[in-house]
Amino acid sequence: HPDGFPSRIASFTGKYNFRNYINWGILPSDGHNIGNMLRDAGYATCFVGKWQMDNGDAGIKGAGFDKYRAFLPFSYPSNQFKGRYKSPIIYENGAYLPDSITAGRYSEDMYVDYLDSFIDDNLNKPFFAFYSMPLVQKPWVPTPDDPEYASWNPKYDEINQDIKYFPSMVNYMDKKIGQIIKHLKAKDKYENTLIIFTTDNATNVDIYSMWRGELVRGLKNGTILASTRQPLVALWPRGISPNQSTSTLVDFTDFLPTLAKVARISLPTNYGTLDGVSFYDDLVGKNGLDRAWSFCQWDNNPTDNKPMIRYINDTMYKLYDEPPLYSRFYNMQIDKYEQYPIPSNQMTNAEKDIRKSFIDVLKQMHN
Question: What is the pLDDT of residue 77?
Answer without folding.
Answer: 61
